[in-house]
Amino acid sequence: MGFQVQVVSISSLKGGVGKTSVTTGLASAALAAGIPTLVVDLDPHADATTALGVQAGDQLDIGRMLKNPRKARLLDNVVSSGWVDHPRGNGGGTALDVAVGSAYTGIYDRPDLGRRDLRRLTTVLAAADKYELVLVDCPPSLNGLTRMAWSASDRVVLVAEPGLFSVAGTERTMRAIQLFRQEFAPQLAPAGIVANRVRPASSEHTFRLAEMESMFGELLLAPHIPEQANWQQIQGAAHAVHHWPGDSAKNTAKLFDSLLENMLSSNNGTRERRKR
């Protein structure tokens, strides 16, 4: 292939910060930008699979692919997102595919995975070269599945709310990434931190955002994503935010367009092909 596949893990130390919402928002932006993308739903709750309008058929879910990664046949088992209404003729058009999540992945969400187990997702994704971007939606923990995702990734995007515990958790996660790089994945680097569910009228959020800017500097990605009242409705209807009617969704879609561009351009110039 003439381009390098970029594998990006979307991670958080704690639940409830909208990690899957950020994953699906970035997937929506990638689809709108014409970037062939695969979403790997590594969270045993499989919320990204639901939000992307996918129902498992005869294909292997990602947990069963991980069980036997050398025989996984990734491209035979991914499912086209329900967001892609009309497949283009002759195999053209932009792909948004999903490696389906399931509770089965939970067997790997242990703190004691060895080096061989940490390579399972890397082996599965060796066949992902038809895509330009792979987004891995991780569980909200630093156990085995997240570490497996980091092992397979070029970059990690951390999702945080501008609150005390989330900011502290982000700092711990940054340290965990540094340690993981040293021991297992020297190629891994943070792509940045997404401040999500921001309430601009909240003085606490304003204070915490300033704190995050001082702690993380340029790693705090722009723009921040505000809290959106109808986000659960959009996800429940299995729609891309770019396809949802109304000014609020349009504004959020533009924010995710910018966020995707900034996330990819933080990648040391390897995304030059986007300027076609």
From TrEMBL:
One Pfam short name: CbiA
Ranges of residues in domain CobQ/CobB/MinD/ParA nucleotide binding: 9-229
Coiled coil region boundaries: none
InterPro entries from the UniProt entry: CobQ/CobB/MinD/ParA_Nub-bd_dom (IPR002586), DNA_Partitioning_ATPase (IPR050678), P-loop_NTPase (IPR027417)
Entry protein name: ParA family protein
